[in-house]
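To assess whether ligand presence alters the predicted conformation, the chain was also submitted together with zinc ion. Input:
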Amino acid sequence: VTVIEGLPYRVFVAEDAAPMVAQLAAQTGGAVALVFDRRVAHRAAPVREALQGSGVQVAGELAVNAGERRKTLRGAMNVVQWLTSIWADRRSLLIAVGGGTLTDCAGFAAAMYMRGIAWLPVPTTVLGMVDAAIGGKTGVDLPEGKNLVGAFWDPAAVVCDLAALRTLPRKQRATGMAEIIKAGIVGDPALFESVERRGTRALGAHSIEAAARVKVAIVAQDPREHGPRAALNLGHTIGHALEAASGFRMAHGDAVSVGLRAAGLLALAEGVWSRAEHARVLRSLVKCKLPVHHSESVEAVVAALAHDKKRVGSELRFVLPTRVGEVRTEVGVALARAREAVERCAASPGPDELAQ
Ligand SMILES: NC(=O)c1ccc[n+]([C@@H]2O[C@H](COP(=O)([O-])OP(=O)(O)OC[C@H]3O[C@@H](n4cnc5c(N)ncnc54)[C@H](O)[C@@H]3O)[C@@H](O)[C@H]2O)c1
Ligand SMILES: [Zn+2]
């Protein structure tokens, strides 16, 4: 078990989360409410057994269908009402086993119930481990947009369950790789180099720990997202616009991958990033079989960009890479420039972009 320090709570990366979760739950002293994504019922089972083995009272269990379409106010209220039905009180601990949609929704339910009870996410996807479960942002989607309702509500701890990754679908692994590459560019050159060398074979305990450390370090600087935390949005501005333009048919990881190329192109245009490093990023994405071009309508992507929360007049705020392991936030980029990058990313990179 590895421990990552730096936040008011600890982040553990364990092969099997169960014993650590039981130990932490025993320390809190209250009864436990266990909510999990049905798809990982086989990972919730050892958690339940370990809790019972340590004499922790499990007040109730709730299996839910997770996924973005269930990350709703209704989904969160379902958890809250279940907490009421099992007489959960202020000392109860809500343990949530699942991916980012489940931990976002359960964390939000924990924030609301009795004005906030303790909760402990056990992420079971790479994205959950290196991103969603760390940082205290909880919330749900509205029909009008993603993550429009939520709260900052820190967990008691985070326990990543590496064993869960064995059943993780290929698409979710690919998304995880895109986030790990992003983490490397944002703050860990050695992590980036390992992916550059080994491609998807780099996915494992080591890279997940390293990427989680990058997230912890940035959240520690800016727990309530007033500034520096924006670094984590590298590749996500154009990435989100691509997802929206595709009607959310494009996978998040694919969108981030193309978004990383687009951010690189913008950084090249700004003169803050080198061709050699841009080529390294592209080759690493390709090596992981991530896409570096899209087939969405440029107009639709630009329209989605124009709706970006960070737009000020005809200017957007971007995170741009400056070198592998370092980014610059809050770079003003004219919408027209962003459009050019989106247009270029509609075609595969030529030798000019791929060569060292
Ligand atoms: N709170 C934050 O700071 C933050 C940060 C980044 C992303 N997010 C959120 O995270 C969500 C995406 O998370 P995600 O990619 O984990 O999605 P997810 O929870 O929908 O999981 C992806 C899919 O994999 C399944 N699954 C989960 N673990 C599995 C396992 N071990 N084996 C087999 N199947 C498994 C799920 O049922 C689902 O179908 C988005 O809603 C996003 O907004 C939140
Ligand atoms: Zn992401």
